[in-house]
Every structure is written in structure tokens, then in C-alpha cells.
Amino acid sequence: MSHVSPATGALESASPVHRESGFHGPDRPKDVDYLHCIHCGLCLNQCPTYRLWGLEADSPRGRIRQMVLVDEGRLPLGDSFVRHIDQCLDCRACETACPAGVEYGKLVEAARAQIEQNYRRPFSSRIARSLVYRHLLPYPRRIAAVARLVRLYQNSGLKTAARQSGLLRLFGLADREKLMPPVEQVFFFSRLGQTFPAQGQRRARVALFAGCISQVSFAALHEATIRVLTANGCEVVVPEGQLCCGALAAHAGVRDIARQLARANLDVFLREGFDAVITNAAGCGSTLKEYDQLFSADDPAHRKALEFRRKMRDATEFLDSLGLTAPMRELRVHVTYQDSCHLAHGQKIREAPRRLIRAVPGVELTEMRLSDNCCGSAGVYNVTQTQTSLELLAEKMQCAAETGAEAIVTANPGCLLQMRAGSEIHKTGQQVLHVMELLDRALRDVPASATSRL
Amino acid sequence: MQRTIIRELERLLGSSGVLSSPEDLLLYEYDGSVEEAGPDAIVFPRRKQDVVEIVKLANRYDLSIVGRGAGTGLSGGALAREGGIVLAFSRMNHILEIDAENQRAVVEPGVVNLDLSRAAEKYGLYFAPDPSSQKSCTIGGNVSENSGGPHTLAYGVTSNHVTGLEVVMPDAKVIRLGGRAMETPGYDLTGLMIGSEGTFALVTEVTVRLLRLPEDVRTLLAIYDSLGDATDSVVDITARGIIPAACEMLDGWTLRAVEAYVHAGFPLDSAAVLLMEVEGVREAAETQADEIIEVCRRHNAREVRRARDARERALLWKGRKEAFGAVGRVSPSYYVLDGVIPRTKLTPTLLRIEEIAKRYGFVIGNIFHAGDGNLHPLILFDHRDRDQFRRARAAGAEIMQLCVEMGGTLTGEHGVGMEKNELMPLMFTETDLDLMRKVRAAFNPVGRLNPGKVLPLGKGCGETRLQPFPQSAGGNA
């Protein structure tokens, strides 16, 4: 305990001696960043984990204070610190709330880099992290191989057997299994290197960033995105040689891999003079736009990253500024919009997706309560912190259901997966669509089916 | 704290309801202020009965108890100055009832201020007190500090909006004060409780009034080349019997700091801006806005802008509500003061503050609720420099003394807490303070609740006690 002695007005445990920082090595939370925190507490009620538990340690202010304490040598970089930093969703809602402009995302990623370098996780966790971040995500072929195995499981009846046998429930995996990305029949990898011509007059020439897991789980979303872009006068190139954006690695503190991936992508996407580089994944987009933070100012990659940043656009952001020109049919559907954290908080884009949704004839948009509160997906959070993720999802589905909308529209694959699982778990019957999918359905000249007006 | 006490607390609240590890204690030694003091344990009750049992246990082991909402306070009110238990209300955060017909709500103390207004919005109602921290601060905290906000000018402070309380007394008895009506017979104990900064009892339920959202709101921004003209406008507006819902002023230095971040459209070369709001039925709001514009022009306003829509209005308010934080981007820390002066003394007071700033070698920005003369000077300093911290405190004390000299008070809305308790003799005689001690003793005879707050510690000693140097980083708001 360190409190003020009323008699002397001195801190009883105050020690003027300089203690050694608990941070070692590169990539550490810097005082120039954390000093802006004036511990006013305006972030608290915007933080999903603080809202759940009401604990200072799981609030942005508390997490920043823990980083400061570790840096000052007053708190060990140990189990308690790691637990609270791990429990952060990195949704960055606190950045929206912060009046002092603290870049919390940058701080928490640096704290995770410190944990990665200086903290020994349990054996199983070390193996799993190393497999995923170092040996799977950077390698497209391995992603495809794993995806084929998962597809086998999902299609072979094994999944049904596993679900029915109660085995999954026995291992506590029942809900987690629902959150797993479904693997598509055709992977998007086959599209790498292709160019899709603009329909009508060419208004822009853009590159599509295809991602990692998206290539095997969201190929259909990519195809929809390409159709929407080309229909609106864009020539779409899917450059070969592109890799995972590195967001998952960076969020997990595995900075060396994130850097390696960033360098490769910078080379690929800057090779040609595209008008823009487009992603339909808000989570990837915010990392892609912040590649410069991975490199020191004297690294040539830093300059490239800044150049790249000027080209990088979220699909909604780009189409909104370009303006929709393709004719759209009427979709008589009532929707609500869920702000993807890394779009609203990370990239400060809120209006563009809403304007696109309203641009579709016949669509009615009703705002949901807490639309910019995280749905619990948060990268791999739904796998690493499943219970918390499910609690957040439950609240999200409640808010979405209150609107009476038939569909939830969002702007990030992770959120799509999470809320599709939510719709199933909570039996709300709401469809979950990406903005690009909604636009695509309005473009396609197909008659509305009897069961769904989408 | 003894292991046996922790175990008893855990038996009451479950292990997730008690924190006592050194790592956790470190996170409750700060709030939104420049003060620091840590507890021996933190407990998280979920219901009134939990609070009762915690108080009984504290009595058995002779421990002090400090209530805490969100810890956004600016005078150290939620800090355990003498150790003991911090009782955090963050899990007692349910809105128990919204009675739209009678414009009442009953809430637990941990409900966040803005969450209540959001929940009431669908009935066309809201909770009027709007401190700048309303996104996070709790109704319980508002009650304890008698919080105000920009709209205090027209609608008053928290005590004008609370009609009833349920509290747990230091002897663990549960008492109900006031009720649902605006006025109850007998002594106004509800009024006495509000603003007692957690030194009388622990609040477990609050009955509040909700106001009807106004039909129309007009937000104006007047821009001045001289601070004097801005303050003269305020005096003139109120002298004409116009009561704006809010009337906020930012001086040149502060508006530049804010503009750099918020981009609210404050001209960088101006000396002061006034942010004013009138509301009511459409025609009245319109007429009042016109009158205000005329007064501002007469006092040489360079320009008066009207917010054209809700978006522009929100942007102007963002410039004001996030002003403290914006200053945090400029300086490693700052010390925000809270004093009140008669609004007719604004100009001479600001000149004297400028003098003090020069003498101490600090930049002092000024932001204030101009309509009711509530000043928030911000002293910029670097808390890592021990000497600067000491001088910032001394400059702050001088400014407070100045406010009292001008016929004002030591605090408008942030409370006394452990920040200003030693300054109380600037305003009150020993007889006054003795009466306050007796009142406190009637509720809290052994000083179990929030010790070391509000009243001076050393009896009869009016000198300012130097506060300790804060141990770790983080600035101050």
C-alpha cells in the first residue's frame, strides 16, 4: 500500500530511486505516447471489458497505467499484467472517446510486443501462437492446405457427428466451433494475378487486397466486392505475391512477422501505380494504413508505408467518395448497421457505409443502440477469450434484435462471422451481410426469391 | 490487510467481488485529479445488502470506507486517503425504473450519467446535470460531488434534480431520504446528503427528476478580439434577463489548443470565444438567439455563428467538452482549478490570473462556465519535475485565494475532497467549520466514511499543506 500520510503529507512508500523498467528490447510503449493520458476516465464506459466487469484493470485507463507502472519498474511484467493486456479487444473504442488523443492501439500493440519478447507463456499457448502466427498465416499454401482439412471436417458429416455426439460440448468447444470460419468450395487464391475490367467507362484502376483467411472463407465476399467495383467503373487488379496484412500478428505482439509481411505487401502494391488499394476488411485496413508504425523513420520501408497509406482505402470509403453509378434494383429490406471497430474507431469511417446502404433503393436503415460497441469478434479474440466474446455477442444480438431489422449489415469479415454465429446461437433469424454484399445483391438482375427479399 | 478480513469479504461477495493484490491496489490510487492515495482492498457490491454487510464488517475491524463511482473526480474524492476499503459501485449500475409520465427515474448509484439520458431519450426525457465527464461518470458520484456542468446556468446542479435517496449509514442502518415529490416535510436531509462527498453515508439508490427535451435548441458561437469584450457580453446578456441554457468561454490560448485537435472552427487568431445555447419552444429560442447576437455585436464580437444543424452543434460542444483532454496533448500534465467568482468580476480576475501565471512562469489556459462565473484555469506543468508540481500547487492556491477575495468560492462543482480541504479556512470561520464538523459527526461519528476529506485536518490551521509528488505518470484533469 502506498498512501499519503496525513501527518507528513509524504508518500509512505515513495521511493526516489530509479527502478529498472520491466520493458526490455525494441517495440515498447513509449512515454511520449502514454504521457498524453490524463487519467480523466472518459474512456471507461466506452470500453467493452470495463462495461462487462467494472474493473479499472480492464479499462483503457487502467491498462495504460499498468504499462506505465511496468515501465517504471513498479509492476512486474507478469501474469497479472499479461492477463489484463490479453483481455483487451484492441477495438480502440477508447481512442474515439479519448479527449487527449491517446493512441491506445499503438500502446497496446507495443505492450503485447513486450509480452512476446519477455514473458514465457504456458507451453501449449507458445506452440499454438507460434504455429498460427509464424508458421501458418504468412504462407498462403499452408492456409489452403489447412482449409482443405477443415472443409473435409465441415462437409464430411464429421461436423454433424461431433455436434450431435455432445463431444464438442464435453470439451467446451460447442460455441467455439460455431465461431469457426466456414470454408468455401473455391478458394480466392485462384484469382491472384487476374484483372477484372471495368464495366462501361473506366473511372479508376484499383488493386484488391485479398488477405489470408478471407481467401478461403470469404471468396464469395471478394467476388461480390469485385462485381460492385467493376459495375461502378473500376478496373480491379488482384496482384500476385500479396500476403496476409499482418494485423493478427501485430495485434498479438508478433512484430517481426508483421514487419516481414508488411515489406512484402509494400513491394507488391507499390509496383504499379494504382489509383487506390482496396480492402473489404476493416481490421486489415487499419493495419495496412498504419504500416508506417511498424518501421523506424530511418527504414526505407517507412517512407514506402506512408506512400502506401495515401492509396489504401476501405471499400466503403472508396466507393462513397467515387460515387455509385451502377443502376440498382429495389431491395425492400429493413436493415441495421454494426460499426466495425477498426472502421469506426481505427479509421474513423462511420458515414460512408451508411450512405452506401441508404443509396440502395428500398432499403430502410434503423440505427441500433451501441452500434460502435465491439461484437466480440476482435481478430482471434473469439477463440482466445471465448467466454467474454460470447457475452459481448449476446448484448450485440440483443441490440440488433431490438431494431426489428431483417438483416445486420457490417464492414468486416470477422464481424460477419461473429454475428452469423450470434444469429444462430440466439435464434434471431437475422441475416448478416457485408455492405459490399448488400450492394452486390442490388446490382444483380435476379428476381427476389419467395423466402427472402435479399 | 489481514488475510482473515479479505477471506470474510470474499465470503460476502465471492472472490470476483474483492481485490487485494498489490497489482490491483496500484490501480485504485488515482482518479481524475492530481491526488494519489491507495486503499488496502477494493470491493464490488452488487446490491444494497452487500453494502450493508461490508459496512458491518468495516465496523467490526475498524476500517474506513471510501465510495467510488467511475473515478473521474477532480478533487480526490474517491481516493482512500487513510487506506481501508474502496467500495466501487461499478457493478451496481442498473436503471431500476423510468416513470415517464411522472418524469422520474430510480437508479443504482453506478449508473453512468449519459446512459441514463440515453435510456430516457425514447420518452423525450433526459437527466439535466451534464458534467464534461458525463460519458463515464456515475449518478452516485454526481450526488456525492453535487456535480454541475455547462447547463448548470439554466437548470442548476445535481441537488436540483434529485428528490430521493436510499443510503447506508456508517452504523449499517438503511435510511430513505426524501421521496418522489420535489419537497418533503421536515429537514431537507436529501439536500444535506448531496454534495457531502461520501463523508455522511453510502448512497445505494437515487431517485431523480427527468426533464423534457426542449423543442428547439439554438447554439451560437461568438468570436472576440478582446477577452474584455467577451466577458462584458456575458454580463450584459444576463443583465437583460436572458438566461441561456449554457454560456461557456474559452480564452485564446485554450481555444487554439482545442482547435488543433477538435477542428470545431474556432479562429486561431481570436482572443476568446463564447459558446452559448438557448432552448425552449421554437419561437422563444429564436427570439433569444437574435437578442444575444445583437448584444455580442454591440460588444465588438468579430463574428457570431449559428450552428445550422445537430452536427454543427455537436462539433461546437465537442470543442468545449473535450477541451481538458485537448490540453493534455499539449502538456505532459495540467492542474485544473475550479473556482467561482461573480460574473461581473470576470475581467479583473482574468488579469490577475495572468499576473500569477507570469510570476510562476506557467502557461495558464482559461476555460469556464462564464454565465455563472465558474472558472476552470488550467495550469500546464510537467509532473515529473518535483519542483514544478510544487509551484503549480502554490499557484493554484493563490488563484483560489483570489476567487474568494473577489467574492466567490473555492469550488463550483469539483468538490473539496483532499485537494482543497486545507483551503476551507479561506472562506469559513472556525465557528462555521465547527458546525460542519458537528453535522458530519451526526451522520458519521467516528469518521469511518471517507476520512481526511472536505474539512481541514489540522484544527485551526489555515496554511496550505503541500501535497506529495505523484508517484507515476499520467497527468491530471
3D architecture notes:
The complex is a heterodimer of chains A (454) and B (477). Chain A folds into four domains: 31-118, Orthogonal Bundle (Fumarate Reductase Iron-sulfur Protein, Chain B, domain 2), CATH 1.10.1060; 123-178, no CATH class; 188-320, Glutathione S-transferase Yfyf (Class Pi), Chain A, domain 2 (Up-down Bundle); 328-443, Rossmann fold. In chain A, 48% of the residues lie in helices and 7% in strands. Chain A has 24 helices and nine strands. Chain A has helices at residues 31-34, 48-53, 60-71, 79-86, 93-97, 104-118, 123-136, 140-155, 158-165, 167-170, 174-178, 214-217, 219-231, 247-252, 255-270, 282-289, 300-311, 315-322, 341-344, 351-359, 381-384, 386-402, 413-425, 435-443; strands at 195-196, 204-208, 234-237, 276-279, 312-314, 333-337, 363-365, 407-410, 431-434. In chain A, the strands form two sheets. A five-stranded mixed β-sheet of chain A has the order 1-3-2-4-5. A four-stranded parallel β-sheet of chain A has the order 7-6-8-9, with helices on both faces. The longest helix of chain A has 17 residues, at 386-402. Chain A is globular, with a radius of gyration of 23 Å. With 477 residues, chain B is an alpha+beta fold. Chain B folds into three domains: 1-213, Uridine Diphospho-n-acetylenolpyruvylglucosamine Reductase, domain 3; 216-326, Alpha-Beta Plaits (2-Layer Sandwich); 331-415, Alpha-Beta Plaits (2-Layer Sandwich). Chain B is built from 15 helices and 19 strands. The longest helix of chain B is centred in the last third of the chain and has 20 residues, at 386-405. Classes of the chains: A alpha/beta (454), B alpha+beta (477). At the A-B interface, α3 of A face α2, α4 and α12 of B.
